[in-house]
Design a protein that fits this description.
The structure holds 2 protein chains of 2 kinds. Chain A is an all-alpha fold. In chain A, 72% of the residues lie in helices and 1% in strands. In chain A, helix 2 packs antiparallel against helix 9, helix 2 packs antiparallel against helix 11 and helix 10 crosses helix 11. Chain B is mainly alpha-helical. Chain B is globular. Chain B starts with a helix and ends in a 14-residue tail after the last helix. Chains A and B meet through helix 5, helix 10 and helix 12 of A and helix 4, helix 9 and helix 11 of B.
């Protein structure tokens, strides 16, 4: 039985609680300007999105660029549950995430046979199909979208973000996660070692879709309005940039990428064209000079706090 | 005008062929680049957008007639294609394909929003280059523009076919796409051939851009995204890397789209195109004209 209450986990937990507490304090005392609060909640949403895309693209090595499609499924389903059917928020978020996971399963089973750029294009096509389906559904307002009350608070956003990241991180360090990494490193070798590659690819894809759906639900229930245009493939590219910037395959890298890019777009909000030009140049320069991203596949971890034995248990690939 | 079902069907076929010939022109560039360096050049649709703008510039500012304007756009985009290849793709030739794909996405975003900074997001109207003459043949209407478009595309495709099949450069292109290393050993300057391929592909995209501007009358900096993706669908449909496949794929996609629109479901058009893409990828990823290649361990 592993001891969960080692130094490392306690420090991490304290860090999470402290971060939450400080910001919650600032919000409650009304010191935090609303724009900052918006940015912070967006950072939480994008952290979930980038880590979940990282699970597919970075850890399992399957190149998906249709993440906005899963986000859209989550956003619309949860919005229907909470705003049209007046269900509780948690139920709505769960329904959205489960629906996105189902979509991931349905899309993943046939398309994950494809490799590399074919898979990329297939997922891009899927994302666009989802958007067009919502665009043509009058029940959810068509192109104009529909409005819903904003129920997500910092507590919800931060709590769900922390929970998702911990779950995904534990998945990566588990046997299943190791199997996914082996697929990324060499699919044929992994298969010949007895790893059921299809199963693990679909598992990672479905899981990534689940969390993308959750993020979509948080987004919908925070933003007052959802429109099909929000979930165009530009959104998928945004998430992809975060993952690539932070380092494909590094969970903490994805988090870093999400924070940097969301803050950058908040700073450049008044000049949206420049934001995208800078994103584009960053993307090209990154690929030319440091294709592994800021962290590569390394993780920032607190393992230096642990004892020697624990270090080995948590060290990364 | 009595419009019977047959007339409507033929009318949709005419519209579909016009649209399809544009897709085919763009798809050719995709397929040639993919055939030679195995890269999905995401920026290809945006090169088409630049072509549309250079054509617009040539017609409204330089007051050139249609054909010189078309040539102007093709030459400037050929240069642009070579520059993009040299700066963004060449250093990544030995990197992973995903790195190259991400770069291509970056170039695409750069052209879209960099273009927006230069020409502003405002939609511009293409000047009417063709007379509004219509020809009616048994109730099926051919616009003057439709005919010019079809002829231009066919001429360009024939030129391309001749270049690829019967010139030394074309022979070298086929050699590089067959086996790059062996071609290099045979004394072919692969870098030049790859640049040449980008130049031809981009020039065809520029022609498509000008035709698109003429056909739809309006251009904007984001106009390249959807036609670019659809042309990619067309290339995959015909078998990516295969030149006749791109032509047939483009025409087929144009036909399918106008049939879907003709059935009154025009808002679903894009979804149908992507659905076709996914189905083709699942059922026969090598496309209609492709051969199955076995995976080697």
């Amino acid at each position: 039985m592993r001891n969960w209450f080692n130094r490392q986990n306690i420090v991490a937990l304290l860090g999470i609680v402290l971060l939450y507490g400080v910001i919650q304090g600032l919000i409650v005392m009304d010191i935090m300007p609303p724009f900052y609060k918006l940015t912070l909640i967006l950072i939480c949403i994008y952290i979930i999105l980038s880590t979940s895309l990282n699970l597919i693209n970075g850890v399992t090595g399957q190149f998906s660029i249709g993440h906005a499609g899963f986000m859209a499924v989550g956003a619309y389903i949860s919005a229907i549950v909470t705003a049209i059917q007046h269900g509780p928020l948690l139920l709505g978020l769960l329904a959205g995430a489960v629906a996105a996971a189902l979509a991931g399963l349905v899309v993943g089973l046939p398309t994950l046979r494809l490799k590399g750029d074919y898979l990329a294009i297939a997922t891009l096509g899927f994302g666009e199909i989802v958007r067009i389906v919502f665009l043509n559904t009058e029940y959810v307002g068509g192109a104009a979208g529909f409005t819903l009350p904003s129920k997500i608070t910092w507590t919800w956003a931060f709590g769900l973000m922390a929970l998702s990241v911990i779950l995904m991180k534990n998945f990566v360090s588990s046997t299943h996660g190791r199997a996914c990494i082996s697929i990324r490193e060499n699919e044929i070798a992994a298969e010949s070692m007895g790893v059921n590659t299809t199963k693990y690819k679909v598992m990672a894809f479905t899981m990534g879709a689940f969390f993308a759906g959750l993020a979509g639900g948080i987004y919908a229930n925070y933003m007052y309005i959802i429109q099909p245009m929000t979930f165009s493939f530009l959104k998928s590219f945004d998430i992809l940039v975060m993952v690539v910037l932070g380092g494909l395959g590094s969970m903490t890298g994805g988090i870093l990428g999400a924070i940097v890019m969301t803050m950058a777009s908040a700073l450049l909000a008044s000049v949206p064209e420049w934001r995208l030009v800078i994103t584009a140049v960053l993307l090209i320069a990154m690929m030319l000079f440091k294709p592994t991203g800021i962290l590569g596949t390394k993780e920032f971890s607190l393992s230096f706090l642990g004892k020697k034995g624990e270090k080995n248990a948590t060290s990364k690939n | 005008m009595g419009s019977s079902i047959t007339q409507q069907v033929f009318q949709q076929i005419v519209n579909g062929l016009s649209l399809g010939s544009i897709y085919a022109l763009i798809a050719l560039g995709y397929t040639m680049v993919y055939g030679i360096i195995k890269l999905i050049n995401f920026a290809h649709g945006d090169v088409m957008m630049v072509g549309a703008y250079s054509g617009w510039f040539a017609i409204t500012v330089l007051h050139l007639p249609f054909l010189p304007a078309l040539l102007f756009a093709m030459v400037s985009c050929a240069l642009l294609g070579v520059i993009i290849e040299r700066i963004a793709y060449k250093p990544l030739r030995n990197a992973s394909r995903i790195a190259a794909l991400i770069t291509a996405i970056g170039v695409s975003l750069f052209l879209e929003y960099g273009g927006m900074l230069v020409v502003t997001a405002q939609i511009r109207t293409y000047p009417p280059v063709f007379p509004e003459t219509m020809y009616s043949f048994h109730g099926v209407i051919f616009k003057y523009g439709d005919i010019v478009m079809l002829i231009t595309s066919v001429v360009l495709m024939v030129l391309l076919h001749i270049t690829v099949q019967y010139t030394k450069m074309g022979k070298a292109m086929r050699a590089v796409s067959f086996d790059k290393d062996a071609a290099l050993l045979m004394g072919i300057n692969t870098n030049n051939i790859i640049s040449f391929t980008f130049a031809i592909g981009s020039a065809l995209a520029a022609a498509a851009g000008v035709l698109m501007g003429v056909y739809f009358n309006t251009i904007d900096p984001l106009m390249g995204i959807i036609p670019g993706l659809k042309a990619f669908v067309a290339a995959v449909l015909g078998g990516i890397g295969i030149i006749p496949g791109a032509m047939v794929g483009g025409l087929m996609l144009g036909l399918i789209e106008s049939i879907v629109s003709g059935l009154g479901a025009s808002t679903w058009r894009d979804a149908v195109a992507f659905l076709i893409l996914i189905l083709v990828l699942i059922v026969k990823p090598s496309g209609l004209f492709g051969k199955n290649v076995r995976e080697k361990v």
